[in-house]
Amino acid sequence: MSSPLLSRSPDLQRLQSEGYDLELRAGHLLIHDVPYVRSDKSIAFGILASSLDLAGNRTAQPGNHVTYWVGDFPCDASGTKMDSLGNPNQAHDIDTALKAQHTLSRRPQPSGSYPDYYLKMKTYVAIIEGQAQSVDASVTARPRRPVRPSETDSVFEYLETSSARAGIGPINSKMAVGRIGIVGLGGTGSYVLDLVAKTPIKEIHLFDGDLFLTHNAFRSPGAPTLDDLEASQKKVAWFKSIYSRMRRGIIEHDFGLDSSNVSQLETMNFVFLCMDAGPDKRTVVEYLTSHRIPFIEVGAGLVSTGESLCGSVRVTRCITENSDHARQRIPLGETGQDPYDQNIQVADINALNAALAVIRWKKDCGFYSDFGDEYSMVYSVATNRIVNDEIPNENPSSEA
What we know:
The chain is 26% helix and 21% strand. By secondary structure, it is of the alpha/beta class. It has two domains: 3-156, no CATH class; 176-389, 3-Layer(aba) Sandwich (Rossmann fold).
């Protein structure tokens, strides 16, 4: 059990003090070795689990009344399934290694909700354990073992419970890759960081040599103070200080990439390329493609028409199986290649560009379904249309 969570949660302390075998796992509270009756009237031991609702490092009131059960569906002393505990066979994935076979439902009356996890878990245990003790009075769900250690490999400073509540823990774990790099922390790159920082990536490497200045404050997430801006920090230091409040594994590299240091990307499992066009960008693209490092390159451009702005957002995907299109799709500094050269950027366009890029990466991870497998997409602001290009086994330039 997590020490901060246990020390600040009286309901968990009470369960522990009464001798229950507790474990914290993938945003769930587990009680191990709960005795129950099988349909043949034999005694077995199962695991009772509940997703956790937290307020920081302490428990909040449970958001629902259901629990999950690892084992056969509990029966009464006669071997009859206890219908009062819900419907059998509604499975729930706790994580990739542990699956609950059943969802249990026991709504308290008259309130319909449990005030804390002590009463919630104890209510279910008492019902299940009580029938088992009718068969064998010696069995107990309180073996008074030492508390099981909590997860030690989480990158987050506090528990991520939304995946557990939604039942998508195993799907979420698909994003727990080793290292990704974000090259460039301008408007789009900073929003990429904001989105990927909330995933279980082990390490996020930030590459940028620029200072965090006033214009950055208006096209990146968050709300820096005047003192923050007057400090003239490097971008990587500023963003690391913000997101390290939430998670570990953010590594800063306070320099831009060029031919002298592009090899810093050698150990990356994936790269988000958020650089302006130019010789250094060409160097990075050539390095990534030659070393078969998958990456996504982003581009957002607006031009003034006099009374309004128009433009587009582009996401170009380069994976190891297909990177030949990179030179045709990615502006590398050639004259006239990028019609949007006024460098007009606003936060919503940067955020959209980042969101589309991160969604594309999550598709490659298997988090989202992917029926298109596109290698390039362009969103037009004026027409509100997305065009996918270079879709394998489909006609090019099909619209989504």
